[in-house]
């Protein structure tokens, strides 16, 4: 099972959304894997090169060697809040106590070049949140992230890294990363050996925001990764909180901007708890709920033509395609899946899709 | 006319609300003055001691000697936004350009012991607001108030003082106060010679908030007069804005608290202008509108008994009295006026009233 899941998600062109579609359509990853070539053909393209079984086995061996394990989006132990995301990472690679991600999690992020005062403040906040039973998640970057992890170390902290589980970044955090793997929870989405690159950070940020009921920003420049994490949290309907600063302090600009945009101004752990507590845990979707039986409907050529006619280079909402085509939702999803596997469709944020080329 | 108005408002027990009621009932101040003893008798008490004509004449002479003049709430030149208040001061004593109060006014208030950086920031903000044609009102206190007046001096500033028009406070602002009287607008509510006391400051603050479309707070302690001004502004439905600061800076606590309570975080004159501009000037009530003809209805003994039965030591809304008594609004108002002049009724914020004793 794990092998088939991993081969699916390591196949180029099969992202989290397609993975979920395939599993929803075929019930199990092995049948999905077998169906990919046929679906791609129906979508009018050539089948993607399924991930090599040998390469995937070698990845599994590496993960085991690093003392890590996989957590699949359809596993019961998968972080429940993260499973809420449409594009929840299919295979997390984790070291440490996965139970931490099932407790109340607050994300705390901020500037890498934060002031000493801000770092001390972040550490104290994290410590106080820990005292109240809140697990603090961050990105193991320099500055505020490091301070947040250090402050929350005794009570429980989750570090999400942009590269592979075995790759240390930044170098000076080697010891902290190892300590979190042993005493907290270390999470990577990239396979082992992958060095973190600029494009990996937004994916890392979405995991941080997705794990948490709310995200707190401590010192951030207006165009920083921290603000991206905050905006992702807002898009997910999670709480966004920011610690204010003087307009005369350039490092406060991002936080002040967030507050102007509607983030809650927070000055203490009590302020943060006040924002986290009102959320009803029953409102959180159980993991795997997105795999509820959707009757596997085959699409007809007529369906394919109808959906294709509605698609173009401008992303359009799948809901809109269903409405305008008057087809069964499952039929529309099938056509989109075929087109995607054929390399002709691109998925976008907010459940939208566009034709390629 | 001015003499009768002044005698009315200088009579103990006749506040702004009663004054308006009397004028609305009798059309002119002389007839109102004559009617006071009769109304008080009907209210079941002794008539208040009408202000001595000689004392009021001496006050008028003093005001003239200081180069000041009166601005009555029913004068056409009265500041239109201030006239909106239920308890708008009846007689302002002013020096300088009363036209300033008819332009777009922003109030700027803050800590007397503000940091040098905050004072510099307030001065720059006021200067930039002035450049955009906004008149800056403040309270001529030390610190932020002084900085706001200085910054806005060239473009137009209004200082509202807690004592009499001739009383300088704080002493080091003597020159600034005189300069505002000559180049801006200086406003006092208390008669000449009155030294500012603690109880005068909330009245001064309500005038500052009342003159302005919005109030900006720059550095304020959590229980400061600046926060009172901000809350008065909020009660009046005006914009409340605050400049944030670090949670580590005690002088930022009041502003951060205001922002948590819903005030708009502002960092620049542009942020302030954005809040001031959306207000539709046509939504502002013309001065004197509250003196629109209300048919002078005499109350019967039955009416008096009905209203008295509904009153008690707990403040109740006048609207509620009207609803529950099923009497004509004017009749209820008449009974309340009589009771008040008889010293048996106290008026409260939000159009409420209670029996005394």
What is Rg of chain A?
21 Å
State mean pLDDT of chain A (0 to 100 scale).
Answer: 91
Described by its quaternary structure, the protein is homodimer
The number of strands of chain A is 12
Low-confidence stretches of chain A: 285-293
State the helix count of chain A.
15
Most extensive interface, chain pair and sizes: A-B, 19 and 19 residues
Mind summarizing the main beta sheet of chain A?
9 strands, mixed
Counting helices, strands and paired strands, the structural category of chain A is alpha/beta
Record the strand order, biggest sheet of chain A: 1-2-6-5-4-3-7-8-9
What is the CA–CA distance across the termini of chain A? Answer: 35 Å
- The helix content of chain A is 40-55%
- Shape descriptor of chain A: globular
Tell me the β content of chain A.
5-15%
List SSEs of chain A in N-to-C order: HHHHEHEEHEHEHEHEHEHEHHEHHEE
Question: How is this fold's topology laid out?
Answer:
The structure is a homodimer of 357-residue chains.
Chain A lengths: L1 H8 L6 H11 L2 H14 L10 H13 L3 E4 L7 H4 L7 E6 L8 E6 L5 H16 L3 E4 L5 H9 L4 E5 L12 H10 L1 E4 L11 H12 L2 E5 L6 H11 L3 E5 L9 H8 L3 E2 L3 H8 L24 H10 L5 E2 H8 L3 H13 L3 E4 L3 E4 L2
Parallel strand pairs in A: 3-4, 3-7, 4-5, 5-6, 7-8, 8-9
Antiparallel strand pairs in A: 1-2, 2-6, 10-12, 11-12
Helix pairs in contact in A: 1-3, 2-3, 2-15, 3-15, 6-7, 6-12, 9-10, 13-14
How would you briefly describe this protein structure?
The structure is a homodimer of 357-residue chains. By secondary structure, chain A is an alpha/beta fold. Chain A contains 15 helices and twelve strands.
